[in-house]
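Ticket #4471: structure export looks truncated?
Reporter: QA, pipeline team
Priority: medium

Steps to reproduce: submit the single chain below to the structure queue and open the exported record.
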Amino acid sequence: MSDNYIVLDSVTHLTVAHRGMASYCASHGGIYAGYYAAKCGAGAVILNDAGIGRDQAGIAGLTLLDNLGVPAATISHRSARIGDGADGPARGILSTVNVAARALGLLEGMPCAQALDILSHANLQPSPAPAPQAEARFDDEIAGRDGVRVIITDSNSLVEPEDAGHVFVSASHGGLLGGRPETAVKYPVFAGVYCDADRGADDAGLSRLPALDDRGIAGACVSAFSARIGDGRSIYNDGIISAANETAAQYGGLIGQSCREFVRLMVDTRVKQIS
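Actual output as written to the record:
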């Protein structure tokens, strides 16, 4: 972090202590990320475009922030690792800029570090409170059965202790935060599904999967072009598996399956284990 801006591995690490500040957060630029930044009163934020993906979901948060008057941009997912805050200012190149950020001089193709310097010297104001979002976490009672729950969320940060041993579907990217294995998932779920963020620099969008394998957790990612990153319902209903770890493969998980089919197989396997 500089004296004038903050660098974080995830937008969910923002707090009210960062109100009115400029930041680079290595999260995707989807609706949930934009909403969370606004809720924390961000002054300006740069995110990762996560491959942009289906319905341009990887940059949809920029419009939400624009509507609140908050300067926002994304870097190209191919220029720096998603989930790795330090890599954004080091290598990141802007790919998308909202109207409020453009008015301050940010442009596509600009290095992330230069953009942060511009934002840090601007007269920024804390974001107004955003409109409440639809429920970002729920149990799918139809998908779960016989004591095995299926939890669908818009963010990996919404995992809870009671999710241990169950199937967890998240609309977060599949990258570790700062490369730290313990950030793959906070609690020992039985299986986890994420979005591949179109893999990106150094295949960072898939880096949760081997870390989950090491903990005996089945893990998979859906293609960012099959489902909307940041939208848990879309990940579950629309997602097509693009990568799966060895533990998931042992339970029948395969590339090309629908997320629904993958989840069904994980539920069936877990039911057999606890029966």
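Status: closed, not a bug. The export was complete when the record was re-opened. Leaving a note from the reviewer for reference: The first strand starts at residue 5 and ends at 8.
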